[in-house]
Amino acid sequence: MQAKTVFVTRLEQILWSERGTHPRWQRPLIGLARLVHALARDLTEGNLRLHAMGLVYTTLLSLVPLLAVSFSVLKGFGVHNQLEPLLQNALAPLGESGQEINTRLIEFVDRMQVGVLGSVGLALLLYTVISLIQKIEQAFNYAWRVERPRPFAQRFTQYMSVLLVGPVLFFSALGLSASLGDNVYVRSLMEVAPFGVLLELARILAPYLLISLTFAFFYMFVPNARVRIVSALVGALAAGLLWEGAGALFSTFIGGSTRYTAIYSSLAILILLMIWIYVAWLILLVGASIAFYHQHPHYLDGRTREPRLSNRLRERLTLQLATRIARAHHCGQSAPSQIQLAAALGVAEGALEQPLRLLESREVVLATATEPPGYVPAQDPERITIAWLLARIRGFEEEEDGYRARPPEAALDTLETRLEQSREEVLGALTLAALARDDGDAPENDDKATA
What confidence tens digit (pLDDT) does each residue in 59-68 have? Predict the structure, then answer.
């Protein structure tokens, strides 16, 4: 037992110590181990699973309207015939139940006449579909640690682009890949040994590549974050492998089982469909997490999902942010973004959310209208004293609904007042501008600058 404890302790020391202290060949293995730990932590904590469960309900509610809208758009471009085989491939792990569900869904879509719904019916139809995309965005924003949703106008235009343009491009690519197999020149190339093997391999890998490209499209455009193409592809390829593997396992152990039919009778099809939709969304969210960790590897350096800061570090981090933003403005540099500030300070971007919100609410910094937004001083740093700023940091969110210090304690109130007075005496009239100029000495006079 003691030997096992020593082994676990040693393993934790290797896993969570600085990567630079290990040999070069161990660093990728440590990074992979941290990634597996982070994914297991995100799944066991329940939030990813809860988002996947919520998306199951929204998908069932919005599936037929989504297919109806996509079918109407695709019909105008003449590629609507690709909808049924794609849906059949997505439901293939359900076995015979998937084929029956596919047939019923296509029947519903064929019977739905979008043109006779009227303005109210069409509005409800679009609302149902847009609500599904909104739920997907919320789940992806959680995976990407994004707390601010898109503005409503931007959200509406991008959702409509996904609905109208996305299906056309995707199904056009499917039609093109299918037509290549019947092309005379492609067939002649297949008769040549090397090209024939390569084309056959491409035909086998085509479903995996198409589903991976679809996932990459989601990872790049759905989260309210700037996602690099490489990170989106890494997450999409990993999710595509999980999709193929989970589909094979599902069809073998669950889709072909007769126990569900014996237990649930006619409801077995619905139960299987719900389980597969849940697994599919979970795979998609795991891929989004992999893309996030690939783009932000410093999130793998901690044992917890969100960085934990003590009151002292939170105070120091806020002062560092204000100082760096003021220094960039003083030196005539471009306004630093949250990503740049996080990289310069060596912390995760999520750790800067609250300090930046504090500085914005106290009109110390101001976010620019660029994308991504940069930060500039909201007022002259010469007018902001460090004593005033520290008082604002310590009292942040006290005015909101929450804890109230009751009953008043006279002794504690006196002690806090003396501490504040001592802090102001030590800091004097030291301003944010002086700190940004690397001048740590307060001016000789005792006049206090006001903010």
Answer: 888 877 777 7
